[in-house]
Write a structure and sequence with these properties.
heterodimer; A: alpha/beta; Rossmann fold; 6-stranded parallel sheet; B: alpha/beta; 10 strands; 53% helix
């Protein structure tokens, strides 16, 4: 018997739970049907951001998604790391976790800086990457030997925040103020 | 004559517990913690089962500490990292200082780590001419105030927003236009960003050391822990040997339980795993990666079969938050790095039972701490054991020893007890009657100084009992 299923309520509908948890932890989750709609939604998000450079993980899927939709300068991960002035980072994820509304990234997802340096982080993922819980995500990391080829992995649950002053929650501490997940149902 | 920690503690406790402004700030902070904590607990289907499992994971790790630490070390070295075993604070600080000097480090960015407070690393680096920036928002504030953290999780919970705005005006030489927490955060973020992009070394603590995967787990909400381990050329982790856990999958329960107990969140915003320096094919990350495993008295605690489980602690701060003593005297009064119930237990081991036994007495033994501890440490019984150990070591005052001898003598002799009771009541009536309450002549003065005198009964309990109280 899996001990975790006793401790945590098992997810009945992973997508529904993922969306609910995103609302709770202040992740913006946009569900799209196909690549065309994803590109459109991405362009809407980019339009809402201040002018400036995009940093993106160098991946064919992302290249086709971003290129057509913006005239901003793009720095690809094959050309360097995100600059201090980067307005947004766009990366893939290793997995999405329904239980906690989280994004699992590793160093290959735009490096360590790809998910922390800019004020906005956009993650492009597909529904087959959605796993029900943390246990499954961690087992995936071990089974696929992800930590043997990556020096870094992170379960990201929402935007950067602090409640250090009078326990009042403030979004956007040292990391991104916004975390946007574009979740495509057609893979 | 110098003040002992016990005398200082009593003095500060008397001042703080009468400081109504301070009490109000803490009350509000703790109330909001309670709300989110209970809400967080309700999200977990079986909280007791979760605690049980966390306890078992930590017990297994602590009982096989040698095995798991070596497994962890092997993996880190295989990725090109370095592991240094430090017996005490001095060894740990010297290693980090020498490393920083060898790498030509001028600026260090630090994320929150109680172990670096414990070993007093900051002053050692500053003395070597290295600028150290605390980058956790709360730590940054207490660093500006030249103060130790007030609470292991919320270092500046004793301050109000206008105190922080005033502090920024004085120390940061910038215009501060508002005391809105979001605005103050932005000011600090801007200041610290310069530090992040210039620092040559990042120093962090660790929440867990995962043995089978050979990675360090660091939880951070602000993301400063991420930047400290991403931007600088070198990354040093300083942590206690007790942080190791056997398997990566253990985090599936430890991460949610740590977050729930600490802040009421389902999981900390950035639950990060780091296994070494930048690997081939990776675009960023430090070139140098060092883990400093600090013992500093922990092996001694490991040898104590009665209190070994104190090493299970995951430093969530829950026991501080529920403790009625902490709520009244606050974090700084303890005069120790670790405060609250866990601090009172731990400090006796790390810093000496003789000097810090008073902390084990500063408890009503109500057991609130034990009831919330996510790894089920029997905290209040450990306080009791510390008291017993202090007595066995003969460290109590002569007057106390005599007092207890007299008490024992009386309690074993009903007639003597009865006479003593009568005398005491007569004496107290006389003192109260003469208006000498709370003066030097009043044997109850310590109580009566700050409280209304306890009303004295006309008759003893025995007399009432004989008259029929015991009849029904």
């Amino acid at each position: 018997m899996n001990a975790e299923s006793v401790i945590f309520e098992p997810a009945r509908n992973s997508l529904e739970q993922f969306q609910q948890e995103c609302v709770a932890n202040l992740t913006e989750c946009i569900v799209t049907r196909d690549a065309q709609e994803s590109a459109l939604q991405l362009s809407f998000v980019l339009k809402s951001l201040p002018a400036g450079e995009i940093f993106a993980q160098d991946h064919p899927g992302l290249r086709s998604l971003i290129h057509a939709k913006t005239d901003r300068p793009i720095r690809w991960s094959s050309e360097g790391t995100p600059a201090e002035s980067s307005q947004v980072t766009i990366t893939l994820a290793e997995a999405l976790i329904a239980q906690t509304g989280s994004v699992l990234v590793t160093a290959r997802c735009g490096g360590r800086g790809g998910s922390i340096v800019a004020p906005c982080h956009i993650v492009y993922a597909t529904i087959n990457q959605l796993v029900p819980d943390l246990q499954t995500a961690l087992t995936y990391l071990s089974r696929e030997r992800k930590l043997e080829v990556n020096s870094f992995a992170c379960v990201i649950s929402g935007s950067s925040r602090t409640a250090d002053i009078e326990k009042i929650m403030v979004q956007g501490a040292h990391g991104p103020r916004r975390l946007v997940v574009i979740l495509q149902t057609k893979t | 004559m110098s003040t002992t920690p016990a005398q200082q503690f009593l003095r500060d406790a008397a001042i703080k517990s009468a400081d109504m402004v301070h009490r109000e700030i803490i009350r509000r902070g703790m109330e909001s913690y309670e709300t989110v904590h209970l809400k967080g607990r309700a999200r977990i289907k079986d909280w007791e089962a979760a605690r049980q499992q966390c306890q078992e994971i930590k017990r297994e790790a602590i009982n096989h500490l040698d095995h798991y630490l070596l497994q962890f070390e092997e993996k880190v070295i295989a990725r090109g990292g370095h592991v240094f075993w430090a017996a005490d604070s001095h060894e740990a600080c010297t290693y980090v200082r020498d490393l920083a000097l060898r790498l030509g480090v001028r600026t260090v960015v630090k994320s929150k780590s109680m172990v670096t407070e414990e070993i007093q690393l900051g002053p050692v680096l500053e003395k070597a001419g290295i600028k150290v920036w605390e980058t956790d928002f709360g730590e940054f504030i207490v660093q500006l105030r030249n103060e130790p953290p007030y609470h292991i999780l919320t270092p500046c919970m004793h301050l109000t927003r206008d105190q922080i705005a005033q502090l920024f005006r004085e120390k940061l030489a910038v215009q501060i236009e508002s005391d809105d927490p979001g605005y103050l955060m932005t000011v600090a973020r801007r200041k610290l960003r310069q530090a992040f992009f210039t620092a040559e070394m990042g120093i962090s603590g660790a929440n867990f050391l995962v043995a089978d995967a050979g990675v360090v787990a660091i939880s951070t909400n602000e993301g400063n822990g991420r930047l400290c381990t991403t931007l600088p050329q070198s990354h040093v982790i300083i942590t206690g040997i007790e942080k190791v856990i056997p398997r990566l999958e253990d985090l599936a329960v430890l991460w949610p339980v740590l977050a729930t107990s600490g802040t009421g969140q389902g999981i900390t915003t950035y639950s990060t795993l780091i296994g070494g320096p930048r690997q081939p094919g990776e675009i960023d990350g430090p070139e140098e990666f060092h883990v400093v495993l600090v013992d500093n008295g922990r092996s001694r605690l490991l040898a104590d079969s009665e209190q070994r489980e104190v090493l299970h602690c995951i430093r969530c701060g829950a026991c501080l938050n529920v403790c009625p003593v902490f709520r009244h005297i606050g974090g700084h009064t303890y005069g120790t790095i670790y405060s609250g119930p866990i601090g009172s237990v731990l400090t006796s081991h790390l810093a000496g039972v003789k000097e810090f036994k008073h902390l084990s007495y500063a408890s009503s033994l109500c057991g609130a701490c034990t009831s919330v501890c996510p790894v089920k440490i029997d905290l209040h019984h450990h306080l009791l054991q510390n008291r017993r150990n202090a007595v066995a070591a003969g460290s109590q005052a002569v007057s106390e020893r005599l007092g207890f001898k007299l008490w024992r003598y009386t309690m074993l002799r009903p007639q003597v007890y009865s006479i003593a009771g009568w005398m005491m009541r007569a004496l107290m009536r006389m003192i109260n009657g003469l208006g000498l309450t709370a003066t030097i002549l009043d044997p109850m003065r310590k109580w009566n100084r700050d409280r209304a005198p306890v009303p004295l009964p006309q008759k003893s309990f025995r007399a009432l009992w004989r008259k029929g109280l015991g009849g029904n």
